[in-house]
Specification:
Number of strands: 8
Number of domains: 1
Structural class: alpha+beta
Order of helices and strands: EEHHEEHEEEE
Number of helices: 3
Length: 140
């Protein structure tokens, strides 16, 4: 069964963009990947630009010519619905000044560009926004 999540970035003006991620949304997986590999707004924006994803990985895009497809993804590369499977209507959703309520996903990950920090909202336990730390990612 999937552990669904969203990944968002909020810029300095309060404008946000959010994508959906279907698999492995627990902090021990997606939280760890985000903390370790998505440390800059530029890289996070590249991730958000691919739209909704099946699974998160350390690298947003495959190396040219490596044969990455949705059904046969290259290890360590994000598996994206639009880019890799040709799906439509999977672009990032925009919001302003207020994080959208959850859409049934278990976790929301939010990068605040003004603070250069990741936050997480666990929607099963009150939905409180909490600073994402390495300690939180050690176990679910």
């Amino acid at each position: 069964m999937a552990t669904r999540s969203t990944i968002s970035i909020i810029d300095k003006e309060g404008n946000g963009k959010r994508i959906y991620c279907h698999w492995d949304g627990y902090p021990s997986n997606n939280g760890t990947i985000l903390l370790e590999h998505y440390k800059t707004a530029a890289k996070i924006k590249k991730l958000i630009a691919v739209g909704d994803i099946s699974s998160l990985a350390p690298n947003v895009a495959p190396t040219k010519g490596d044969g990455h497809t949705f059904d046969k993804p290259v290890k360590g590369v994000v598996n994206a619905y639009g880019r890799d499977r040709g799906e439509k209507d999977v672009k990032a959703k925009s919001f302003k000044n207020k994080l959208p309520s959850n859409m049934g996903e278990e976790f929301d990950y939010i990068f605040k560009e003004t603070e250069k920090k990741w936050y997480v909202r666990n929607n099963h336990f009150g939905g409180k926004l909490t600073l994402l730390t390495k300690e939180m990612c050690k176990g679910d």
